[in-house]
## 1
Amino acid sequence: MLRILGAVALLVGSNTFMTYAWYYHLKQKAWPLLVAVLASWLIALPEYCLQVPANRLGHASFGGPLSAPQLKVIQEAVTLTVFGVFSVLVLKERLRTADLVAFGLVLLAVVVSMSGRSPAQP
């Protein structure tokens, strides 16, 4: 369980950087496209420094309890959670009921993915 929590914590950090990289430039209307791209790449670099260790910590082939599909589904749920917070707090955009339902369905996918047997060690 500790490896799952560690992987999730790294994924939260990773997705925080990536959400800023992908969406913060929307608030910077004065930035030319090239500046937005370059700034986004610089912000995204730390994302990879967290994402790769998260996957290694959690994956069965490195002693973790999760399969690659399980890691991916968890990552998508973390992405939507981080994005939801970012959208409301930074972009000042309210989430619609349909958005919340869609996010909830992805969280349900995590529950489905995590149910059943653990992956066999490769």
Note: The mean pLDDT is 90.
## 2
Amino acid sequence: MRLTIALLLLVLNIQGVWAEVRTPYPGTRIIETGQPFASYLVKLKKAIRGNKMGIVGEACATCGAKNIGVNIPGNRVVMIFNPFFAVRMLKASEAAGIEAPLRLYVTESADNTARLTYRRPSAVFSVYKVEALDEMAKELDGILETIVAQAAK
């Protein structure tokens, strides 16, 4: 009887893993680039800079894992923003400051290609219900769309 209950609990726990929600937030975009991870990352960074957005940080889970002797597929969070947008954002809503920088999440798929996941700025900032933020976010939506299109080439 105990073995049956233990197996049942194990199966229920495994089902929770299978039920992952890949896009828990509205406005999340997932793009299968079809490009090799490393070269896509280079193109993405070039497109970011070419559209006058700054790369203010980069988190590399792959690098951290390697430091402890573990190999995982490519995994980067590229954090971007522009000081002109930062000033506008904070003028409109100090509380919205937590949303900057915007994050672009690049992961390596099983076939070694890059997947890009990000949230549209209009979705990120809409929760504040501030018209000036909504206007700024629409501009940022367009910039991110351009970045994504240029990195795809």
Note: Residues 19 and 127 are 26 Å apart (CA to CA).
## 3
Amino acid sequence: MKYFVTVGSRELVIDVEGASVTVDGVRHEAHLGPIPGTPLRHLLLDDHSLTLAMDRQGIGEWEIAWRGTRHAASVIDERTRHIRSLTGGGVVRGGAGILKSPMPGLVVRVLVSAGQAVQAGQGLVVLEAMKMENELRAQAGGVVAAVQIQAGQAVEKGQVLIEFAAPSG
């Protein structure tokens, strides 16, 4: 499976196949496992052994400490990245916007309400499609103008889920 990992301004493309990973085109043997009872993970990468402190900050968001330095990392799989590209990012910077359903599915949870301010990366709606839950997130801050769906509702691809207000002023 292919993952896109962003650390700072650098994005790495990582393809995982069993115990092999390809990072930006370079193949490695790798194993990552938890150290029981701690927030630490042991990474064996080729012949190098590393211990990382990993703290989950949210879905696909991690804070990783290594050699005394903390790094914020965002991890997204290929499927989720594609879904996000179809939604147009949800909140449009600098103007009103809409969030449309990227696929037919069932609304599992609505995480926001009308009048609520949202931040970039905040979860908006959880959709179930093909027995997988997909959290649709805001790409930028904004204010929810209207929520057009409710939990338990079936939606079609392209259906408007949430409308965002244009900024005042």
Note: Residues 78-87 form the longest helix (10 residues).
